[in-house]
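Researcher: I'm preparing a figure for a lab meeting and need a structural model of a single chain. I don't have an experimental structure, so a prediction will have to do for now. The sequence is pasted below. Please return the structure as tokens so I can convert it later.
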Amino acid sequence: MRFNLKGAFESILKSGEAPDQHGNDPVSMVLLLREPTFSPLDQLRSAAGRAFGTSFTGDKEAQHYVIQVVLFTVMKAGPHSLSFMNYRKPYGDDSRNFGKSLPKASQRQAWAEHTAWTAVDYVKGGADLELEYAVLAKLCNEMLNVNCVGLYVPGKRTFVPNDDWLREYLRSFAESRPLGLA
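Model: Understood. Here is the structure written out token by token.
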């Protein structure tokens, strides 16, 4: 099975942009990070294994893998393709003002603490949003750590600080649909 680099590239190009007024945001979840410390491939494979209940390899011929392809980190989880983008600056062009506009003090504080981010995009998303967000949520729940200050969902214009409620938020997404993984 071949990974679609063009689809991954198009999805990644939209990451970090201001919200799209036409609803064409990538199906994405963005982990906002205190420090620009990103998960290496073995940690992503481990998180994917916990999330999806199967082992992930570095072999792109396998049904479940995580690999580096040029500038991209890609994951194939059965029928689902995900791409990862790590960035060493705050999220978005107007990050500071956006953070100040958040309604809750806990959101504003968490947003202000981030200096980097990792976007997890569903490649060629948009066909079945509920399923696609369920896949992303299942994985992102396993990627959470103390470096993560919160999770932003561009397509839903939602930011949740990394607290007990974030895990429940991700669980509710993840349990909304069977993921179709063997």
